[in-house]
């Protein structure tokens, strides 16, 4: 007769009578080592000059314009994806700008619209990005962009920031004519890097993107530069921090 641990303990005498044992659970599976890091654009590319220009062009109204613009930018991407009427990041961003200006009753002549859109092609990197990316490369990690921005915008940012030859892959969801958090967008990283999703750390700028990547199955680090509260989506990131120092420390601790 085979005795399990409950039978043995139950027969060991009165000393253990009435003891309630926890249910048996299998030990957790060991975490797979990280072999690559896939970044959204904005942990690396600094969007602040765009919104600073908005304040320059519309003194006292730039912050409100930027907030409305940024919110509608993502809403238009998601709405178009749901409607099956795709337009790329550049078009949805410009449409969102026109709407935001109208919402705030601001005149937006063509030259100012062009200036604000051009600012997206002139983005550089956050000051801490370059050195940290070099550190991650030296540790043998493969690096990728995985962004809703178009290839043109990503390549411009890489050039402006002096990050040529840093990334193994530069992936725009424009290629699948959809946007994150569509699972097909996150699948692009798996397909391009040819690694299991569990071995690719996804680094997000936005909380919703962290949740989307977590739902897909990536380990996720939320580089929360804006200090925002987590989204109430039931999918918290595995780690979070305010800058690249926190990210590099997290990767080193995770192993």
Explain what you see.
The chain is α/β, with parallel strands linked by helices and 255 residues long. It has two domains: 36-46 and 124-254, Rossmann fold; 48-120, Putative phosphatase, domain 2 (DNA polymerase, domain 1). It is 46% helix and 10% strand. The chain has ten helices and six strands. The protein has helices at residues 5-10, 48-57, 62-83, 89-103, 110-120, 129-138, 151-161, 183-193, 207-216, 244-254; strands spanning 36-39, 142-147, 169-172, 200-204, 220-223, 239-241. The protein has a six-stranded parallel sheet with strand order 3-2-1-4-5-6, with helices on both faces. Helix 2 (48-57) crosses helix 3 (62-83) and helix 3 crosses helix 4. The longest helix is centred in the first third of the chain and has 22 residues, at 62-83. The relative contact order is 0.14. Residues 1-19 and 21-29 have low confidence and may be disordered.
Largest sheet: 6 strands, parallel
Strand content: 5-15%
Q: What's the β-strand tally?
A: 6
- The name of the CATH architecture of the largest domain is 3-Layer(aba) Sandwich
Spatial extent as radius of gyration: 23 Å
CATH class of the largest domain: Alpha Beta
CATH fold-level label of the largest domain: Rossmann fold
Derived from helix and strand composition plus strand pairing, the structural class reads alpha/beta
- Helix-strand pattern: HEHHHHHEHEHEHEEH
Total discrete domains: 2
Average pLDDT figure: 90
